[in-house]
């Protein structure tokens, strides 16, 4: 029950345990075409997709080094750990970072972004789903504000895409970054980026140094008669991702969004039924990860350690400033209703063991009510 | 029969098709410890190992950005396509590259490196096994020359390590770069680097920009009570690589070297028995890939295409300046004697079909002789 890597469906495991296809030629070409078209469908975009063998962080770095030049001024909107990471990446490459920073748990506001968007800002970088706090930023109105300004809009949706709506073309997102290992139910190791025409135009003039991350090299390799990557890809992970996308296609995007929303509502109802408080703003939008305040007298780290050791279920502890103060239940990716019921049941037992008063079954019952209502 | 990614043994496929372990904590910690210790064994080194989720090229880039500063003068020794790649990476980051370039097919000479090593050169970058031509550079005497000079010695052994001897500590290699997908029999997607004390010292003062590739971040994450990577790794590929290293441990390193040498000799004897000429210098050292000159009247690209289409066996064509002029038979990694016999047999049929006079069975018989002699 961590916010990624999430469990991997057997169909995907089977694909990545199958004999390898050669990475030059029709075998891998077919896989890459399937992955690319599937990602365009999930992103709801006609923009180009580039992919890399790396973690989501590599995808974030690729966005920075492909779009900007040394000294460029950018606005980083941070609501948690991954916002801080965007800032660090930008600073590592000598960008001039203006930081719009919120307290962890808050969501970003379009009006604040508008106020911060002074002339000369070349890019706005933000998280869609901020994994460290579980909050999901309301990207649509923020995109509307950024569109009125000549800055690229760069959205890290690594733990969001496929779990929460993200309409790249309709909203006007220039660079959308995703990862294989969250809502997409693939194994970790592939980052993918949707690149708008404006982002390609910026890229053409961007002078930050890059080699492995270079988008032009990827695009050129994709345009061969049988699409390839410029350097040897993690072939098996692409084979698995193609399978995972197939599963999402069967389910349907709206159904996947709905599944995530129902699992989220049930989780939240369950923990609240135990008298626990949710952490973060706009919790009804936090469909990928539920962050819960550790109750008085219970250390969140001890709680997650106990649940892991005794029941083999992994909740994520709080990071950084929230260490011990919250715990996080991920429900993005390959999770179903029974997983939530199980997680809430072991939470009841563990809380009781740590001395927090629990009426056994309350959390589970509350979740069951949500599922029954959802049909 | 390409020089990578090579086939993946069933044990490795099974591991990477198994349920995923969480990347923070004891499950992945055990995998990462196994991988790290195994790689130290294969590299014959006590140096630190850092790993990345990426292709071998990413590993090469990590060496450049972690060891050098803008404007640093480096000596790139190039004997083919991957030498050119080292040059391009260095230039992308604004290094001052002195190029010692050999005609494709030649091997590098220690005396030439010595002559090129002028004061002020901060690093020497070279391939161990140059996949594009099949040649393997004699690293030991070159290392001896570089050791007399205050430059870091950076060796790309992506297609060499595990297939041909590489004694990192004994020879004095500061940075050795390898990949999961060649002699190690893993799936592609992990690069690993052995880093000497001198390389760490250089790294501490190196100012090229980096984030994902930063060695310090990797080292810090490895030093946690349960070793981790700083960003989500390709967990399944690490699980597979641990299994692959286990297979190599069972075989023994010297036996693996011997296996590669015997397969190489048999392949070379086979193609020569058909009257074909080997390509490249010091062919007896070229134990990972055999490069063969396309005979008069036969286009190497057509030959490899025919073999792939009609027999489902993939030989690698020539790259760049050698396109059509050579073809390459890889025998690095998960190959055994029967694979070589099969490859030579289909080569006989395909050459005959393209009008080259073949006495059927000659190539296979010559290889059989080598195997019989080897016992």
Structural features, described:
2 copies of one chain form a homodimer. Chain A is of the alpha/beta class and 375 residues long. Chain A folds into 2 domains: 10-250, Aspartate Aminotransferase, domain 2, CATH 3.40.640; 253-374, Alpha-Beta Complex (Aspartate Aminotransferase, domain 1). Chain A has 14 helices and 10 strands. Chain A has helices at 10-16, 26-43, 56-67, 81-92, 110-116, 139-147, 168-171, 197-205, 215-222, 235-251, 253-273, 300-311, 337-353, 362-374; strands spanning 48-53, 73-78, 96-101, 121-127, 152-156, 175-179, 190-195, 289-293, 316-317, 326-330. In chain A, the strands form 2 sheets. A 7-stranded mixed beta sheet of chain A has the order 1-7-6-5-4-2-3, with helices on both faces. Chain A has a 3-stranded antiparallel beta sheet with strand order 8-10-9, with helices on one face. In chain A, strand 4, helix 6 (139-147) and strand 5 form a beta-alpha-beta unit. The radius of gyration of chain A is 21 Å and the shape is globular. The two termini of chain A are 23 Å apart. In chain A, 56% of the residues are buried. The mean pLDDT of chain A is 97.
